[in-house]
Amino acid sequence: MTANGKYYTMDHHIMNDIEVQDMEKNYELLSKEAVMHGPLEALFCCIGNPVIGNPTQLMMEAAFRAMLFPARYLTCTVTDDHVKGAIDGIKALGFTGANVTAPHKVSVIPFLDGLTESARLSGAVNCIIRRGDSYIGDNTDGKGFLTSIEVIKPVKDMNVLVIGAGGAARAIITELALHGAKEIVIANRTVEKAQQIIDRIAPHVKTKLDKDALVRPYRIKDDYDLVVQATSVGLFDPEGSLDITWEPSRKQRIAADVVFNPVRTHFLASAEAAGATPVDGLGMLVYQGAIAVSQWTGKDPDFLVMKTSLEEAFTI
User: Fold this and answer.
1) Pairing of strands 97-100, 114-115
2) Which active-site residues does the annotation give?
3) pLDDT digit string (tens) for 67-82?
4) Total domains present in the chain
5) Smallest Cα–Cα separation from 138: which of 280, 292, 8?
6) Are 260 and 279 within 8 A, CB to CB?
7) What share of the chain is helix, strand, coil (3-state, %, to 5)?
8) Which of 185, 186, 183 is nearest to 164 (CA)?
9) Element (DSSP H or E) covering residue 97
10) Is 79 helix (H, G, I), strand (E, B) or coil?
């Protein structure tokens, strides 16, 4: 939906008010028919902690409406000690799929029935897909991130710095390595976690993987083509920032932040001041969400509908 309440169609045509009303009426009718005659609306959710301020529900529901796909999507706070119960509940209630956000992208794995190659290699799950009676963990984070970078420049032969070693970092490192990055350095306060990622991924890729201690202040060298802020620092916290400095560089560097709220982070501001091209977390969020919707429904959602719904969410 656009800022004036109109929708894009799949061919990027903006629907007029009458067309929007007809679509919403049709969607409401589909929902009523599902309740009265079946099959019931598909159920989806996002689990994590915190989740207040996460606009995934608004994005997914906009996609479902535009597709005329009858579904409901819930945003659920799940604490560390209730992860198993949450997955058991998703299975018991017959959910069609789910998203997993921090801090549960790794801890959900033991309670799922299987993993895709991306999830297995990265060791993290952000998307759950129902296949028959089985619930399979996938990782669309890395694929979504990759797409957001490659609209600017291919990652092949890039020298990359990834700050962080959590679930998002694992997914991003996996996809960058699978798509031909030359070297990836993982900077983390606990270098053992960075080494765990290297041990898991290195045997399967040609990319050189290395680690570095994230000390304060951390100086970002001048030889990176891409610098990724893959921690949760700054998420839902406009004042949150890493203690970093940038070496001057003649390279056309790209700086990407996985944080999507706020869209403009301290990291991106410092990167732009150092001459880097900033990439905010919204692109990754939309692309990974679109991939998830495609896997859940078998249909391609409208990217612009999803992106516009996020932009609107941040004006509320």
Assistant:
1) unpaired
2) 105
3) 999 999 999 999 999 9
4) 2
5) 292
6) no
7) 40, 20, 40
8) 186
9) strand 97-100
10) coil
Query: What pairing do the DSSP bridges indicate for beta strands 127-131 and 134-138?
Result: antiparallel
Return the ∠ at Cα 112 (arms to 107 and 114), rounded to 5°: 120
Residues 29 and 121 in one domain: yes
pLDDT in tens, 96-136: 999 999 899 999 999 999 999 889 999 999 999 999 999 99
Q: Which residues pair with 160 in a beta bridge?
A: 184, 226
Do both 257 and 231 map to the same domain? yes
Shared-domain flag, residues 32 and 80: yes
Angle between helices 167-178 and 141-150 (to 10 degrees): 60
- Contacts of 131 by beta carbon, 8 Å cutoff, 6+ apart: none
Residues of the chain scoring pLDDT < 70: 1-20
Counting every residue, how long is the chain?
Answer: 316
Same domain? For 189 and 152 the reply is: yes
Residue bearing tokens 């970093």:
244
131 & 180 share domain: no
User: Is 106 part of a structural domain of the chain?
Assistant: yes
Give the pTM.
0.84
Q: Is residue 6 part of a domain?
A: no
* 3-class secondary structure, 275: coil
Return d(Cα 98, Cα 110) in angstroms, integer. Answer: 16
Report cis status (omega within 30 of 0) of the bond before 217.
Answer: yes
Same domain as 126, residue 235? no
The letter for the amino acid at 304 is L
Looking at the fold, whether 84 and 129 belong to one and the same domain comes out as: yes
Which DSSP string corresponds to 169-233? HHHHHHHHHHTT-SEEEEEESSHHHHHHHHHHHGGG-SSEEEEEE--SSEEEPTT-SEEEE-S-T
Q: For the chain, give the longest Cα–Cα distance.
A: 64
Among 91, 96, 87, 86, which Cα is nearest to 41's?
A: 96
**Residue-level pLDDT at 131:** 97
Tell me: do 215 and 238 sit in the same domain. Answer: yes
